[in-house]
Amino acid sequence: MFCPHCGQNNPPDSLFCTYCGACLNYDDNNSFQPTPPMNPYTPPQAPYPPYQYPPYPPMAPVKPKQTNPCAIAGFVLSLVSVFLPWFGFVCALLGVILSGVGISQSTRLDQDGKGFGIAGVIVSSFVLFFYVLVIILVAIGISVSI
Questions:
Q1: Strand partners, 32
Q2: In this structure, are residues 93 and 71 in contact, taking their beta carbons and an 8 Å threshold?
Q3: Does the reported pTM lie above 0.90?
Q4: Beta-carbon neighbour count of residue 23 at 10 Å?
């Protein structure tokens, strides 16, 4: 089917011209509806090329960072030292050591878990301070009573 506006050939089932966009509507008796006359001063336009995106480069899958196990163990031991009065001093001491090792390893090996290590050091330090204070107060109480 030829467009009455620009004269270009179009597919037979088109409603609009693919070159100039003119309406290709039919009446019931298969005749064209009136269209404005073609401007003789404008050249016929070529169809628009399909828009193409550049291909994306393949991306490597993102691997999550591993959490340092020493930092986690130090934090867990610091929490255990709060709730276990008989083994609290030993757990707090081990918590400080493991949390410190976890902080240094997570920094050196670019791992997560530095926050666990810092929290483990802080909690264990408070627990150790509490136990040392209790030991000093018990020693003073024993020396006064003798």
A1: 26
A2: no
A3: no
A4: 15
What's the rounded Cα separation, in Å, for the pair 20 and 48? 10
pLDDT in tens, the chain (146 residues): 678 777 788 887 788 888 888 887 655 455 555 555 666 676 666 666 666 666 778 888 888 888 888 999 999 999 888 888 778 888 888 899 999 999 998 988 888 888 889 999 999 999 989 888 988 998 998 888 76
How many CB atoms neighbour CB 74 within 10 A?
30
Alpha carbon dihedral 88, 90, 93, 99, in 10-degree steps, equals -80
- Name the one residue in this structure whose structure tokens are 């408070």: 126
Q: Residues 114, 93: contact at Cβ < 8 Å?
A: no
Could you tell me the CA-to-CA distances from 140 to 80, 88, 145 in Å, in that order?
28, 21, 9
**Domain ranges within the chain, ordered by starting residue:** 1-47, 69-145
User: At a CB cut-off of 8 Å and minimum separation 6, what does 12 contact?
Assistant: 1
Tell me, rounded to whole angstroms, the distance of Cα 52 from its chain centroid.
28
Query: Can you read off the two tokens belonging to residue 141?
Result: 């109480």
